[in-house]
Amino acid sequence: MESSAENAAAALPPLPPAEGLTLAEQADFEAGLPPVQTGPMAVQASPVWQDAELAGERQMQLTLPPADHPMWHVLRKTRVWLDEPTQMFRASHPAEVRRLAGTRMTIRGYMLPLEADMRTTHFLISPYTPVCFFHPPAEPNEVVEVRLSRPIDAGYHLVEVTGIFQLADDGEKGLFFVIDRGSARIVERVDG
Predict the structure, then answer these.
(1) Would the CA dihedral through 171, 45, 125, 69 be positive or negative?
(2) With 0-12 CB in 10 A as exposed, 13-18 as middle and 19+ as buried, what is 17?
(3) What single string gives the DSSP state of each residue in 94-132?
(4) pLDDT digits (tens, 9 = 90+) for 142-169
(5) N or C terminus of the chain with fewer C-beta within 10 Å?
(6) Between β-strands 104-113 and 119-126, what pairing exists: parallel, antiparallel or unpaired?
(7) Dihedral sign for Cα atoms in the order 166, 167, 173, 174
(8) What does the alpha-carbon distance between residue 151 and residue 118 come to, in Å, rounded to a whole number?
């Protein structure tokens, strides 16, 4: 089903340049260059203990299998930064990502439940196994908010989600992608 989203994206006319980009940044997006390797989470000022804690969690994540779905490679092209005056995240989506808005998409990722229930219709997914509920499992361009039509068993499971992809602008939470009216299936249960 991701192929139908990719085909739909290829058939659409180009969108106007994203606001707030320099010509060089726009050229990078259109050329499909990947985002800078260090994201806003890596550059935020924080106490030394917190940096060490996050670094330890990132190291632990590297030992776990990722959900290496091709759609993550597309979504990572969105450039995200921290706007210092407002302390809010901002995102600029390349045309390749903007064209996906409103299309039906399928993506695999690890669930991070947002509710303390046994079943859920609202959660986040990322390509990385969450190792701590209190820290983000990934960069903002590697997290999708999911809203399902029917509940699924909650947990840190590897799930496959299909639904209508939308762009979001939640700079406070660092959420820029949503799959709405979705359905999901558990690919692999993760106990913990």
Answers:
(1) positive
(2) middle
(3) -HHHHTTTTSEEEEEEEEEESSSSSEEEEEEEESS--S-
(4) 999 999 999 999 999 999 999 999 999 9
(5) C
(6) antiparallel
(7) positive
(8) 9
DSSP code of residue 59: H
Best CA proximity match to 192, nearest among 64, 62, 69, 53: 64
pLDDT tens digits, one per residue of 92-147: 999 999 999 999 999 999 999 888 899 999 999 999 887 766 666 788 899 999 99
Q: Say if pTM beats, i.e. exceeds, 0.85.
A: no
**Could you tell me if 126 and 137 are in contact, meaning their C-beta atoms sit under 8 angstroms apart?**
yes
Beta strands in the chain (DSSP E): 79-83, 88-92, 104-113, 119-126, 144-153, 158-170, 175-188
Q: Is 181:150 a contact under the CB 8 Å cutoff? A: no
- Does residue 67 contact residue 158 with C-beta atoms inside 8 Å? yes
Structure tokens at 135: 């820290």
The closest of 135, 130, 173, 126 to 42, measured between CA atoms, is 135
